[in-house]
Amino acid sequence: MLRGEITTAIRKALMQELAAVGYGRLSIEAVARRAGVSKTAVYRRWSSKLELVLETVVAAAGSKLPSLDTGSLRGDLNLLFQVVTHALRHPLASQIIPDLLAEAARNPTIDQTLQQVLRSKQQEIAGQLILRAVQRGELPADVDPDVAVDLIVGPLYWRLAIARTPLADPYLETLVESVVAGLAAVTAVPRQREAPVSG
């Protein structure tokens, strides 16, 4: 295999092994065996299991999504939800995500990396969606971006990745309408000044 092919094979094997046994039981030896390479080939690229997992997960999260600009808020949400549903239903994702989230509770390095990756990806996708909706006049200019992003990504992620509840046919359509209605009401709340302390 060429150098680039070896790296790709190791990353693919890592995702498969992580889905099969979880982070706790994951070993470089098993990843190398599944990839058909030597342990040395893995260690030349990554110094540890943790580095291999984090680098691979960050690379996977950074992959480009198709353009979600359909010209309307409802259209953008519908397409985004379809993409997210497809991704979260993938067998590897459905096994890896819950395991890494559980591991993050025990490992500060994994926790910090996942938080950065997830928040960055959420802002990249949902943040741009909100900005376009504001520019089109579909959402108020004072929409609270943090609450809006949570409202967009939260329900579907909870249902598929955490609760693992199957989706009925009209669910996404209902979710789109509910999120559109919710976003229209999510405005930034001005911070109240603290009352002066009377002496």
Radius of gyration: 21 Å
Q: What is the name of the CATH architecture of the largest domain?
A: Orthogonal Bundle
Shape: elongated
* DSSP helical segment count: 9
Tell me how many strands there are: 0
Say which CATH homologous superfamily of the largest domain is assigned.
Tetracycline Repressor, domain 2
Would you list the SSEs in sequence order as H and E? HHHHHHHHH
Q: pLDDT average, as an integer?
A: 85
Kindly, what is the distance between the CA atoms of the first and last residues, rounded to a whole number of angstroms?
77 Å
Characterization of this structure:
- It is a single chain.
- The protein has 2 domains: 3-52, Orthogonal Bundle (Arc Repressor Mutant, subunit A), CATH 1.10.10; 64-185, Tetracycline Repressor, domain 2 (Orthogonal Bundle), CATH 1.10.357.10.
- Helix content is 72%, strand content 0%.
- It is built from 9 helices and no strands.
- The protein has helices spanning 3-25, 28-35, 39-45, 49-61, 73-89, 91-104, 108-135, 145-162, 171-185.
- The chain starts with a helix and ends in a 14-residue tail after the last helix.
- The mean pLDDT is 85.
